Each structure stands twice: as structure tokens, then as C-alpha cells.
Amino acid sequence: MLSYKDFLGLRETSVDDIIKILEASKQMKQIVQSPNKKAPHIQGKSIITLFYENSTRTRMSFELATKYLGGVSANISSSASSVAKGETLIDTGKTIDMMGTDVIIMRHNFSGAPHLLAKHVNASVINAGDGMNEHPTQALLDMYTIIEAKGGLKGLKIAIVGDILHSRVARSNIWGLQKMGAEVTLAGPDTLMPAEIARTGVHVSNNVEEALHGADVVMGLRIQMERQKKGLFPTTREYCRFFGVNEKLLSLAKKDALLLHPGPVNRGVEISSAIMDGDKSLINEQVQNGVAVRMALLYLITRSGANE
């Protein structure tokens, strides 16, 4: 079981709880890869996905994780719910809570929204991405993917390249990877780098070649045009020229370096098609591991706190 009723971010998650989830993910991946994807681990548990933003990978992986473990799942999108009629987040949460829900998986465009909801419901709340704050399950699956390939995280040099400013994936990885002993370097345009991000303990560079030199893992990030204001960089072509990761840049990393990306990928912008489809890319493995990690989280959180 986990230490708390809710799973809201890696900033507040202990190393012990991170290890528990990653260890349980190994067993869950065996279920994902088996011909008969059915286990009774959360049988009788009700899981609701409440998404105020679009999603493919995260929502589907949580829904499949629930079904593979024998739970009951239902999806609520804000556009097709009473939210469109003016219902508040707290009232929506209380309504879902009173239906016997055990876990609410929430994605919201405002930072801190899952934290607010968790204070007003008995169900466990899992943060599936809140504004520009965190996306903790994505970071967990990134860490699990690296551990599978490298055997661990301690001492590894991880280069995260791209739109750091708007990336909740980057923030969760910063907290999680450093807690697990990795060295994190961020690279991107100055206009897409958060002020004072170096205070988190990461290395910061506006030179991609410098960041990738000797890296064990290179993680590209999507340019989040939907969150950006105008003028942060001239054009996507200009961005690709100076910050897009390609074969030449990736060759600066270690020979056995891994390439990751949380998806969706803008091919030829953040990373080239050649390396995305190359032998160093674990982008497809990340998707499969995302199901396993979310299965592990659901299993553990339904045995924690009020759900014990």
C-alpha cells in the first residue's frame, strides 16, 4: 500500500512509495504481455476518469489498467457532463463520490485542481496531469522504462530537451529522477525555460549539444502550442534547427543512450523521424509500460488509506 490516500505528484511522494510502484510494475507488465489479460487485483473497485483536457495515452492506459485488473471503469469528459452546465469541480467530485467511486483519475487544465478535489471527496484522487504543474504517472513510466533498459537510475545522466516551461512531464521527472539518484540536465530556448528552475537542483543549458554530451538518456518534449503565448520562438522550423534532436545530436550521447518522448510527437520538430523509429528509441515501450505502471498504482492505492 502507499502512504497516502491520494497520488497527486512526485514532489510530495516518498522514495519508498516510488520504489513500491516501480517494483509492482514488473508484475503488472507480465499481465499486460500475457495472452489472458485478466486479474482479480482490484475486483469490485470502481474507477472513474474525469478529464477536462484531451488525452489518448493516459486515459486509455488507465481504463485498460482498470479492466485488466478486474475493476469497473467509467469515463467522464467535461464537455459531455454537467460541467458544461456550470457545475463546479467540487460539486462534480462530490456527485461522483456519492456513487460509490473508489478512485477518481483526474486531468485538469488548472494546476492544483486534483489537490483541491482530494480535500472534498472520500475516493482516492490520482493526478493525470494538472496544468503546467505535474504529470506524475508519466514520470513513473519514464523511470520504469529506463530501469528496464539500464537496471537502475542512480548516477545516470538524463537530458530533457524542449518546452520545459509548459511541461508538467518535465516537472514530475525533475522530482522523481533526482529522488532516485539521477543527474538531470534541461535544455531548450531561454524563452521556454522556467525562471529559477536551477533551484530544483538540475543543470540548465540553452545549448543542446552541451546537454546531450555523454547522456545516458535523452528525453524530447512536445512543443505545447496550446499553452504558449506568441513570440516565444520564431517558427517551428527555426526551433527544429536549433533544438530539434536528430541523428547528429543523438550521437553526442553515449553509444547505448536511450531516446524517450512522452508523446504525442511532432515528427521532424522535437525529434527526427529517423531516430524516433531507430534502435535507441523506447517510445513505443513507454506506451506499454504506461499501462503496467498505472495498473501498479491502482492496485496499491486501492489498498491505502481510506481504501485499505
Structure, described:
There is one protein chain. By secondary structure, this protein is of the alpha/beta class. The protein is built from 11 helices and 9 strands. The strands form 2 sheets. Strands 7-6-5-8-9 form a 5-stranded parallel beta sheet. Strands 2-1-3-4 form a 4-stranded parallel beta sheet, sandwiched between helices. α2 (57-68) links the parallel β1 and β2 (72-77). α1 crosses α5 (136-150), α1 (15-33) packs across α11 and α5 crosses α6. The longest helix is centred in the N-terminal third of the chain and has 19 residues, at 15-33. The model has no long low-confidence stretch (mean pLDDT 93).
Summarize the structure.
The chain is an alpha/beta fold. The protein has 2 domains: 15-133 and 288-307, Rossmann fold; 136-283, 3-Layer(aba) Sandwich (Rossmann fold), CATH 3.40.50.1370.
How are the secondary structure elements laid out?
Blueprint: H1 15-33, E1 46-51, H2 57-68, E2 72-77, H3 89-97, E3 103-108, H4 113-118, E4 124-130, H5 136-150, E5 157-161, H6 168-179, E6 183-187, E7 203-205, H7 208-212, E8 217-220, H8 236-243, H9 247-250, E9 258-260, H10 273-276, H11 283-301
Parallel strand pairs: 1-2, 1-3, 3-4, 5-6, 5-8, 6-7, 8-9
